[in-house]
Write a structure and sequence with these properties.
Blueprint lengths: L1 H12 L23 H30 L7 H15 L13 H28 L4
Length: about 130
């Protein structure tokens, strides 16, 4: 009798935990904050303007560097100086009017790609948060 009671007790104690179905836990979807269409369009406009400005200034800087033009006259100095803040953020060893060599040229091209990826990601986030109505 005692062996049967022990065997029944062992069989009952084999279950360590009771299984709970995954669907019973509740299916709550993640609610993202929504922004209105007007605000989203305004932010998209700011992103397009700032990306366009940065890319054009950096492209002009790269073209000037490819032709080996230094900042001798006022126009080239203005283009180098206006594109310098975009370059300064990533690379602190460039001067406002750069010395012309290939390292800085490739570095400026890489900076253009980095800015494009950052602005593209921000644009995707804004479009994901835009409300549909």
């Amino acid at each position: 009798m005692q062996k049967d009671a022990r065997r029944e007790k062992k069989e009952e104690s084999n279950t360590f935990y009771e299984a709970i179905p995954a669907a019973a836990a509740g299916s709550h979807e993640l609610e993202l904050p929504r922004i209105s269409v007007r605000v989203a369009e305004f932010l998209e406009g700011i992103i397009f303007f700032s990306l366009g400005t940065a890319e054009i200034l950096l492209l002009l800087r790269v073209i000037l560097m490819m032709f080996g033009i230094n900042g001798g006259n006022l126009m080239t100095y203005l283009l180098y100086a206006s594109s310098y803040p975009f370059v300064m953020v990533v690379s602190s060893n460039q001067q406002q009017v750069p010395l012309i060599n290939n390292q800085f040229l490739y570095e400026n091209l890489a900076i253009m790609i980095i800015y494009f990826v950052i602005f593209y990601g921000a644009l995707k986030i804004i479009r994901a948060l835009k409300s549909q109505h």
